[in-house]
Amino acid sequence: MTISGELLYGKVVLVTGASSGIGAAAGRVFAREGASVVLVARREKHLASLAEELTESGARVSYVVGDVADGEDMRRAVAHAVERHGRLDGAFNNAGIGGDQEPLHLMGDDVYDAVMDTNVRGLWNCLRPQIAAMLETGGGAVVNNASVGGLVAIPAAAPYVASKHAVVGFTRAAAEEYARQGIRVNAVAPGSTRSEITVDWYARNPGLEEAIHAVTPQGRTAGPEEIAEAAAWLLSDRASYVTGVVMPVDGGYVNR
Known about the structure:
Radius of gyration: 17 Å
Structural class: alpha/beta
Strand content: 15-25%
Low-confidence stretches: none
Distance between the termini: 37 Å
Order of helices and strands: EHEHEHEHEHEHHHE
Mean pLDDT: 95
Shape: globular
Number of helices: 8
CATH topology: Rossmann fold
Strand order of the largest sheet: 3-2-1-4-5-6-7
CATH class: Alpha Beta
Number of strands: 7
Largest sheet: 7 strands, parallel
Helix content: 40-55%
């Protein structure tokens, strides 16, 4: 175990959904905390810009263009991390979509399929090669992005809520299965956070953000870097006895 002034000093960490929002913030936070970071997302222009920004600051960063819904893309991303850095120490499985926000009985199969393919099959596609790589080098840590939607219901978002409950299930199952093999698996459950999903939801539902603030003890929306900081701690050796945890990062929302 290595504990230094930087939470992730010397670690190789992969981040999915890294082109914007929480994922891009995670790339910045992890790099600042000493990690070699592999950024993964579908939008190459955004990835290249972030990688250039972080490289200019002295960080060790590379990127892979890929879709979590494509298993071969995720195998390729993990292979890139191992080939470039020799191992994979950590992964933040952040990629996800919200889908339409409307009553369940009005939703089409296309909404369900898109949300499940990205949020559930996408995590399935990520976990298998990540865990396999970590087993080769004696362990590691995984953090999945579950959302408060994995802990409580969100109105008019049934497929999203179901998918994030599945993320919680995957997290707990993998934590139990691999704990004695040196792999910790945890999740963060962000509340209202400034990201593409919430910006879209709030734009299409006037008054929704204010309504959420009204029932959130801290009364505000988080910045994406606040979620990334929690993920960094869970990935670090300072959380060495923490596994199977779903950590709300939500201003007190689920405990109100």
